[in-house]
Prior knowledge:
The protein is α+β, with helices and mostly antiparallel strands.
Amino acid sequence: MSSLGSILSVARTAMQAQQAAMQTTSQNIANASVAGYSAQRVNLAANTPERLTYGDLGTGVGIQSVTRNRNSLLDVQYRSASTSASGYQQTSDILAQVESVFGEPTTDGLSATMDAMFNAWDDLANDPSGAVARTAVRAKGSELAAMFNGLAARLDEVDGNDRTELATNVAQVNALLDKIGTLNPVIAGNEAGNSSANDLRDERDRTLDQLSTLMNARVIEHSDGSVAVYSGGRLLVDGDNVHHLAASGASTVAITIQGDTESLANLGGKLAAGVDAINTQLPAVQRGLDALAGSIVREVNAIHSSGQAFSGNPPVARAGGNFFTQTGGAGTGDLAQTARGMSLDVSLSDLTNIVATGATATGPGDNSVATRIAALRDSTVTLYDAGGAPVASTTLGSYFRQVMSDLGLASSQATDLATAQKTLVTQADSRRESVSGVATDEELVQLIKQQQAYAAAARVISAVDEMSRTLLAIGQ
C-alpha cells in the first residue's frame, strides 16, 4: 500500500500544481485589458526524488515561484521616451496658447492695428488742420495702446496658468513619490520569505510610469525588492524615505528638494517644460512685445514733441508734447513695463494738442510731423531691451514679424518633436507589451495544457483507486 500511497502523493502534487497554474492563467485572462498588468507564470520543478536501492523514484512536482513577465531594460526605454514626449508636448501646448494670444496673421491683430494708426497719421498729413483726421489719429493711437495692454495681460494669464500647472505637477510628483515610498516596504516585507508581490510590483511600475511623464527618474532596485529613485543625481526615494520637491521663485522659478536651495538638473518631462516656459520662452515673447511698444512710444513721442500745436483764431503756436505715455518704464533704459503701461497722453483729450506741424512752420497748415510719423511704418529704427541695450535695427513691422516667426518656429519644432517622441513611446510600449502583456490566445493554449495535465493527474488517482479495490478483493 505504501507504493500506492506514493503514487497518490505524486498525483496530488500534480493536481495542486496545475490548479495553481490554472488560477494564475485565469488571473492573466481576467486582467488582459488592464493597463500596466504583467502576465504571471507559475514556475514548476520536480520534487526531490526518493532514493532507493534500485534507483530514484519521483515524488511529484512542486511550485517554485510565481513570477511576472517583465524586462527592466524595456521599462527604462519606455520611461525615457515618455519623459521626452510629455515634455515636448507640454512645450507645444504652452506655445500654442501664446500663439493664440496674438492670433497672427489676422485683420484685427497687432500688425493690423499698427497699420491702422500709421494710416491715420497719413490721413492727417493730407489734412493737417482737419478735426476728423485728428479724431481718427487719437482713436487709432488709443486702440494700439489698448492692444499692447491686452496682449501683455494675456501673456501674464498664460504665465499664471503655467505657474499653476507647474505647482499642480510638483504636487503630483510628491504624491507619486509618497506612493512609491509606501509600496517599497510592503513589497520588501511580502517577498522576505521568498514569496512574490507581483500585483504590488505592477502598481509600483505604473506609478513609476506616471512619474516618468513629469520628470526624469532613474530607478535602482535593491535586493529586498524595494527601489531607490533618483533625478538629476539627487535621491528622491529610498525604501520608505521620501524627499519632496518644491517650486520656488517669483520672476524665475526653480525646482528644488524641499529644504534645499540647489535646483534639480536635467529635470525633463512636464516639470522641465513648465520651468523653461516660465523662465525663458514667455519672457522672450514679452521682451519682444515690450521692445516693440517701447520703440513706438519713443519714436512717435520724439517726432510729436519736436513739432508745434496750434489753437485759437488767429492760430497761436505752442510746443508739442508726447503722444503716448509710458508708465512703469523710464525711457530707453527701462522698457520692461512699456506694453502693460502704454497709453495715450492725457493732453490729447484736447484735439488741438495732436501735432501735425513742424517746429519751423508759421501756421497749422504744415504737415511735416504727421508725414514723419506716418513714415515710421517703413523706417528703420533701433529697438532696445529692458536694460537699454539694442536688440535690433529694422522696421517695426519686420521686427514684429520676426518675433512671431520665432514663436511659430519654436511651436512647430516642439510639436514635431512631440509627435516623433510619441512614436518612440508607442514603439517602446509595444516592445514592452510583447514581453509583459497578456496574449489571450497563448493563455488559452496554456489553460488547455493545464486542464489536460490536471485531468491526467485525476485519472492517476482513479487508477490507484481501482488498484486498491483489486488488492482488497485479493486479500478477501
